[in-house]
């Protein structure tokens, strides 16, 4: 999914005070590819574009997608991600030299940490690694119960949902995770859901959607990207949603007409998280009803499809028990997403794999394309299948022990190689290979 870093990232740039290139240009700009004189990328990293602003994110999605389809990621790819963690447990978007300790200038963020935690938990990483990430995420929870992109930033739907999914994956009870003001993450999400049954025709049609954040006047504006994230967050789901075995569940539907009557949503003005998720899903169904895809919300990109958030919408609809409604945007992606994924890189392939998996679609035959093979081609070769019931962690431990023995005999450790390979990294543009990151803040 993912979900989650479009509007959140725009907010973060304001906090950091750095002028990043627009995300809309990043996917298509020639500058997204390293120049002949640019430092070589780490051999364990997925993707060929500059990782400065999305290295951990795209790596996490790539590893999680491979795990989801039964592929064992390369050990050095997992080690690279683990090596990005700071001593406090958080992850920054990318650290060129992981041998250098994180300091106050290191911008650890909730999205990178949440994505890494989901991937490393699935891959049976050491408890010390995942436990530290959980502790850090808990420590930066806002008083309203949610999370912003950066610690201390205002809570937003996307970041809050990423963290919920990560903590749930790590067996943390998010329903009982309370802030100093005794607020839960779900309280924060409900506060960002547009109320139903009020307003004129236009505002009523957006009822049930999620906003990214309130505007300066405290008003909420519907945001499709945030809504896909909010649906998953409200359901306690992460980036990966397993397909339903028994078909769609009973999901409350919105009512209303084109005559100006406002939409009516489940739960009225005080929905439960599950009802808010159902309402958000209904909004998404309407958003893709005409064309099968979401439209980019970035200024200057009107009437352009938003591939990444359409994939997130498929996952959200499947999670909300509406796989039949996910069929139309899924079919559109199967037909139209090939060029986008090839240009965008590993995280895009991962998003499509998550969409296929959530709907029970074969990702190795996605509109005739083998997404698993295409994702694998963007990074180091996968490991052979596990033997003798060993987990990924067991095999990595055995391999590292063997490499340690070789180092005693004059060999070179994999950590030394990773440390040297990570030096450098020049950033142009933002999130060069992941989801379309094209939503604007309300």
Give a quick precis of the structure.
44% of the residues lie in helices and 2% in strands. The chain starts with 5 loop residues before the first helix and ends in a 21-residue tail after the last helix. With 442 residues, the chain is mainly alpha-helical.
Descriptive overview:
InterPro entries: Prenyltrans, Terpenoid_cyclase/PrenylTrfase. Pfam families: Prenyltrans. One of its GO terms (molecular function) is catalytic activity. It comes from Streptomyces dioscori. This is Prenyltransferase alpha-alpha toroid domain-containing protein. The protein is an all-alpha fold and 442 residues long. It has a single domain, classed as Glycosyltransferase, CATH 1.50.10.20. Helix content is 44%, strand content 2%. It contains 18 helices and four strands. The strands form two sheets. A two-stranded antiparallel ribbon has the order 1-2. A two-stranded antiparallel ribbon has the order 3-4. Helix 11 crosses helix 12. The N terminus and C terminus are likely disordered.
Mean pLDDT: 80
**What share of the residues lie within helices?**
40-55%
* Class inferred from helices and paired strands: mainly alpha
The tally of domains stands at 1
CATH architecture: Alpha/alpha barrel
Low-confidence stretches: 1-33, 198-203, 246-263, 403-442
Radius of gyration: 21 Å
Strand content: under 5%
Shape type: globular
What is the CATH C-level name? Mainly Alpha
Total helical segments: 18
CATH topology: Glycosyltransferase
Signal peptide: 1-26
Domain Prenyltransferase alpha-alpha toroid: 59-169
Transmembrane segments: 414-432
Organism: Streptomyces dioscori
